[in-house]
Design a protein that fits this description.
This protein is of the alpha/beta class. The protein is about 50% helix and about 20% strand. The strands form four sheets. Strands 5-6-7-9-8 form a five-stranded mixed β-barrel. Strands 1-2-4-3 form a four-stranded mixed β-sheet. Helix 13 links the parallel strand 12 and strand 13. It is found in: Endoplasmic reticulum membrane.
């Protein structure tokens, strides 16, 4: 971190504290003065609402003031993330990389927000130091916190503790010994007296709540072990172990801290304990049975997937939504000579046909469409137009192939019927009378490096 960035952060933090903190503090003092004996209940409610409001704002409005957040662009990491999210039945709200390297070399990943605003954030230092498999394992750990409801549990505990604290403050505020014991005299002016009580209480509270720290650490470490177990079941535990070691090293954390100190103050188990726990966990090699392949034929919930030039396997699709179509790139869990499609990878485009009653998708990731018509038999211009419109909507190149152009008497009529289309789309004439080699030579330039859908 540069000196300039240090002071910029400090100024931003101060301004943000003033903008958010002063209105909240003013409201708290107003409640203490106006709401009678049970003001502390109202103050607790206001604090909870304010905290949730900050949690809602933090991912999209507050955090970006200090750091830059960008979606993960590595396609290998993206495919692994999508496969993992599908296995865990997790709706992705956003997975981002944060430029943490501009402040330190520490690596971290965290879960933030709630509802439709939830997101997972990786430090760029972490992405740069871990392999895609290790990133997947770390993400599985973070998803474990969400799926096991650790965030909600800690939120509930925090809300209840805040209620207890405000109840105690409500009692102490009226006790003369509270002020005299701290060597001060209570103010006679109500607003100042409330501010005085609030300030004194939060100054001395850490001294009397120290015993809560070990309990908080115990529950936090328990959650970390549970999230590790979840990751071991949904990714590869060996990758998580190597990722943990790298993270502890990058963060300059000791691998063997004092056991008493760590049990009191550490929110995360020491590396040795986590690694030992993971080594005794289940196999957790689900992710390594998943392979990427191309759908070369699809029919309902069944598909034929090409995993390599030599390997094609029949697959079924998990779930009924977003059926696979020919041209989809998918993640497949292979079991012997069959597989199960667990994830459809992001599509560049989707080609579909529709009528008044329904819409049906049947090809994806298409570069161009060859729409084949012939001088004979008679072709339907309306169907040609509908195909052209569908191609335009999916941003797919459209080429018209006119076959049997050797039928000289019929060629002018066919070209006349195509006149309005050749103004916008290329027209290639061919004939069934040429050899296969000549046909290949005619179309080789158009087909090279392109995924082409043949219609007509």
């Amino acid at each position: 971190m540069t000196v300039a960035l240090f002071f910029i952060d400090m100024i931003k933090g101060l301004v943000l504290s003033l903008i958010l903190g002063i209105p909240f503090l003013w409201g708290l003092l107003w409640l203490m003065e106006q709401m009678g004996t049970y003001w502390w209940v109202w103050a607790w409610i206001a604090t909870v609402v304010f905290s949730l409001f900050i949690q809602l704002l933090y991912p999209t409005l507050i955090a970006p003031l200090f750091n830059k957040f960008e979606p993960i662009e590595n396609p290998q990491i993206q495919s692994k993330i999508m496969a993992l999210a599908n296995r865990c039945h997790f709706k992705l709200g956003g997975i981002f990389v944060m430029d943490g390297s501009k402040r330190s070399g520490h690596g971290n990943a965290y879960f933030t927000g709630f509802g439709g605003n939830k997101r997972i954030v990786f430090y760029d230092t972490l992405i740069n130091s871990l392999t895609p498999d290790e990133v997947e394992a770390v993400l599985a750990h973070e998803l474990g916190h969400y799926k096991l409801k650790h965030i909600i549990k800690m939120l509930v505990v925090g809300v209840l503790l805040a209620l207890i604290q405000f109840a105690i403050l409500g009692y102490l505020k009226e006790q003369p010994w509270f002020y005299s014991g701290l060597g001060v005299s209570p103010s006679m002016q109500p607003t100042l007296a409330n501010a005085q009580a609030l300030l004194l209480f939060f100054m001395v509270m850490p001294l009397f709540t120290f015993f809560v720290t070990p309990l908080s650490s115990i529950f936090s470490r328990k959650h970390e072990f549970e999230a590790d177990d979840f990751a071991a079941q949904n990714s590869n535990k060996a990758d998580l172990i190597t990722a943990l070691v790298k993270m502890y090293e990058d963060n300059a954390s000791t691998l063997t801290p004092d056991p008493v100190y760590s049990k009191i103050f550490y929110s995360h188990p020491p590396a040795f304990e986590r690694i030992t726990h993971l080594q005794s966990a289940g196999r957790g090699d689900v992710a390594h049975s998943a392979e990427e392949g191309l759908v070369i034929a699809s029919f309902g919930q069944h598909a034929l997937v090409r995993l390599s030039a030599e390997v094609q396997i029949p697959c079924t699709q998990k779930g009924k939504k977003n059926a696979v179509v020919t041209g989809d790139w998918v993640q497949v869990e292979v079991d012997g000579e069959q597989g199960q499609i667990v994830t459809i990878l992001p599509r560049r485009n989707l080609f579909y046909r529709s009528d008044l009653f329904k819409q049906k998708s049947f090809a994806a990731n298409i570069d161009q469409i060859f729409y084949v018509v012939a001088c004979e038999p008679y072709f339907d211009v309306d169907l040609l137009g509908r195909a052209a419109i569908a191609a335009e909507s999916a941003h797919i190149n459209f080429v018209i192939i006119l076959n049997k152009s050797d039928l000289t008497p019929l060629l002018p009529l066919a070209r006349e019927r195509l006149a309005q289309y050749v103004l916008w789309y290329p027209l290639v004439q061919t004939t069934t009378q040429i050899t296969a080699l000549s046909l290949q030579q005619q179309f080789s330039t158009l087909l090279e490096g392109q995924t082409t859908l043949l219609l007509g």
